[in-house]
Amino acid sequence: MDVSRAVCEFARDEGNCSIEIVRATLLASPFRQKFDFVIDISTVDHVPAHLRETWIAAESSLLRKGGTLLISFDSRHNLFVELYHMLFTRRFYPEWPLAPSAVRLQLRRHGFHVIREHAVFLAGLFLGTHRPWFPLARFLRREKVFAFLKRIELSNRSPLLSFLAPQYAMIAVKIDGRA
């Protein structure tokens, strides 16, 4: 499910024919069935603050008890991410880096238990502006460097590096049957 027509068309063209592609927003979800797994990749940080509780509640309503939510968002802990959004991206589209502690509290209020957290895309500290000319871009794309960064990101200590990572991810399990 995505709100963008272009994204849905691309997914239909490139995706597996057994996957249903739906153009919609989570705030008016067309789904009534419950799922075992929901992936939210950097969408909650595009939702204005006054709608975030509604957003998390909608994600909770899509999951069965025991279902898993993987949620990622731009991290407010990284000063460069906040400055980049403030100076550049907010002129074109809404996006607000979030504090992991605030997302964690929202998830708890909606019946989730966070089981893993990771500061992710450490290379994004340098590559996060999507500019291939950045001096360190070639170095960071080397296989061994990338493998090393991936090992750090998947470790239990990666949240300690959230000030370096532009993204933060949480894996949460729905522990009660609330809708």
Task: Furnish the topology, listing elements before pairings.
Blueprint: H1 5-14, E1 35-41, H2 52-62, E2 63-74, H3 79-87, H4 100-109, E3 112-120, H5 124-127, H6 137-140, H7 143-153, E4 167-174
Parallel strand pairs: 1-2
Antiparallel strand pairs: 2-4, 3-4
Overview of the structural elements:
The structure is a single chain. With 179 residues, this protein is of the alpha+beta class. The protein has a single domain, classed as Vaccinia Virus protein VP39 (Rossmann fold). It is built from 7 helices and 4 strands; from the N terminus they run αβαβααβαααβ. The chain has helices spanning 5-14, 52-62, 79-87, 100-109, 124-127, 137-140, 143-153; strands at residues 35-41, 63-74, 112-120, 167-174. Strands 1-2-4-3 form a 4-stranded mixed beta sheet. Helix 2 links the parallel strand 1 (35-41) and strand 2 (63-74). The mean pLDDT is 82.
Shape: globular
Instruction: Estimate the mean pLDDT confidence.
Output: 82
Structural class assignment: alpha+beta
Note the main sheet. Answer: 4 strands, mixed
| CATH homologous superfamily label | Vaccinia Virus protein VP39
Per the CATH scheme, the topology name is Rossmann fold
Helix % is 25-40%
Uncertain spans: none
CATH architecture classification: 3-Layer(aba) Sandwich
Keywords:
4-stranded mixed β-sheet, Rossmann fold, 179 residues, alpha+beta, 4 strands, 7 helices
